[in-house]
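Appendix B, record 7
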Amino acid sequence: MSAFEVIGGLALSACLGFAAAAFLRLPAGRVPTVLTAFVVCTGLWALGDVVASHAGDMLWKQVGLAILYTGSIFLPLFWWLLVVRWSQGLGCPLPVTPRRWAWLPLVWPGALWLLMLTNPWHGEFITPRLDAPNEYQPAWWLMAVVNYGLIVAALGLAAWTMRRVGTPEVRKQGALVMAAGVVTLVGNLAYVLMREPNATLLTLAGSGSLLVVGMYREGLFGVLPVALPTIAHHDPDGVLVVRADGRVAYQNPAAQALFAPLQLGVESRFPGAIGGQLRDAQGMRLAASGPEWEERFWASLARPEGAVLRLDRDGGRWLRLSCREVRSRTGTPRALCVRVRDVSDERAAETTARRARRLESAAELAGGVSRDFAGLLGVIEANAQLLEEGLSEDPALERRLGRILDAAQSAHDLSDELRRFAGGASAHLQPVELSESVISIAGRFGESTGTPIGLSLDLVAEPVIVEADPERLRDALCELVRNARQALREVGGAVRVQTGVDTIDPVRRDDLVAGNEQPAGRYGYVRIEDDGAGMAPAVHERVFEPFFTTSEKRRGLGLSHVLGMVRSLGGLLALETQVGRGTAVTLYLPLDPATHGPEPDVRSGAEPAGVESGLQDPTSGAVVHRMRRR
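Structure tokens (predicted):
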């Protein structure tokens, strides 16, 4: 065995191995079929050359030549078709319709292949020699002309494609395609003309190596230049591959982060390992056991929109899970590819939009009811006053009419509240200092439960003058502090109230309940925060609706009049809450332009030194108010 054959055999083996690996990265379609045939023909040519070169008798010589020429006759055809598919895949306009002539050369190799197989009986193709070079007959030269013509045509098509498409990537791919064709053409011609040395294996290995480099580095023939796990590693969505037995075969780092702190490693059963921590959109925990449940689970993920489930970790993370079946090239189901996306922000945005629509509808309803209700009350009051004036001295009737008038006045007040919630009531605006408003309400809250609840004030040192109705502002602050204290009635703690100035861009805030349409700018703010149990999603969505309450003892408009006040002042209202971690409500009110200049005056960096003082509740003396001026 010559050195050329040894080196060529090793190179060809490595080349075929790399080609097989590249083949696994190809998408399904026509190109893999042609490429498969091309690789098979290359292997047959190489195998037949080895057998024919080392045959000890004429039978094995004939067998080797049959294998060799089966590969070499059809290889140029599939090389031509491969270049055609490559050019078509790049969208290059070919000279004529491919269907008319792409497979036409198959007629010639087919006829020549039959001549080659019947050569031992007629000898018109080749005359084999055991210890000397074979003698080429007329049919062999006909094969050579056809094959060399196909290789030259493929070179021309590659050059045509490079010129018509013209991108750097296509030029690189085309250069490698042409180089592979030239290596095969020159190597074979050299052997045919010189007959020594036999460098067939080395020629095939060199040509194949150029194609493999093109597939791995330049994406030639649609091969992915990098492996799928490398791509999935950087995918922002979680990607898992689950085998038919339900065990995880692969997961990318994003999937690990989304399911953390659950340890969902390779070979873990899916979805059993996470099913117990998942809840559906109604908050029901999934059963997470049994083949019927798993079948329903996979069916829900296979829907076009997938399934949105909540993971009971980190306060409830919403995940959209979807899956697609992965099949082999023969169509056999092999695995499921599961994609996981964090849609918590999308769900929060949907909740905010839904709440805004509901509040807007409630406001329209409240405004209409308030107007009609006020008209009816006017009739009741007017007639009751006429009856009162015309009554004789009858204390019992006077008391009854008095109760009617008192009830009518209360109904009027409720109607005004509804109108203010709807934004239809006029506000008596005047400059109000926020910190002073907070201090004025601090003494109203005595000890109402058996658990000590303090009020901690953190007030900015500089005056914060806003445009507001003083009485309505104090009522709103009282309502917010009262709700915060109610959240702490069982666990104790302190309600923290903070004032300051901040620059707000409502468009960039996803925690706003009202004021998204207000312009960006500087606002004075009051923040009321507690460390209570927080709000469940259902409460969070409805807390500012009229007459909504979670307390059986309380009735009335609740927090809705806070929302109405903010609307009437052109301010913003932000709500932050998380189950188990408390709630914070922040009122942003427009600054008084006569007091605050247009230049930004937003405090940042380290907190300035302040002054601490103590206030004692004049009602009970039990609650300590800690105030700090920043």
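Remarks on this record: Confidence is low (pLDDT under 50) at residues 599-627. The chain has four domains: 3-222, 228-342, 348-421, 430-629.
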